[in-house]
Amino acid sequence: MKRIITTTFAFILLASIASANDRGRGGPGGPEFGGQATVGSDGTLYISRTTVDTGTNTATTTVTAIRSSGTTAWTATLSGRGGLRLSGSNLISVSETRASDGTVTSTLTALSTASGAVAWTRTISGDVSELEPFSGGTYVISVSSSTRSITAIDNSGNVLWTVTA
Fold this sequence. Notes:
The chain has one helix and twelve strands, in the order αββββββββββββ. The chain is mainly beta. The radius of gyration is 20 Å and the shape is globular. The longest helix has 21 residues, at 2-22. It has one domain (33-164): 7 Propeller (Methylamine Dehydrogenase, Chain H), CATH 2.130.10.10. The strands form three sheets. It has a four-stranded antiparallel β-sheet with strand order 1-2-3-4, with no helix packed on it. Strands 5-6-7-8 form a four-stranded antiparallel β-sheet, with no helix packed on it.
């Protein structure tokens, strides 16, 4: 009896682990987009996929907008790596550059959700650790060597204010 209980427990544990690791991709041979997905309030699905050229160690991120009807609305390509954050009518991506002295500069690129065109770019000193959308734009939390800053950027890419904490 103890052997049956132990075996049953082991199968349940393995099934739970497999289910948790599947993440809805359909298992082997199932659909896998290989990137981040964000859903807009109108039902549009924005999918990003990053590829890295191992020869040059450069990354390219491709973003595809799929309308709720299933049609592809647009595709855009960004240089560098970066997840997407929906803020108003923009999708914001962050890419970082590290100088030889170790300082980090982050570039925010906003894509228009309507067309996929670049709406604006903004460069910020430090490593962007968080993007938090608000009703008129995005709060950008960045960290440099010894300071932490919060910058408010409106939906047009203008800096509203910066506070150093």
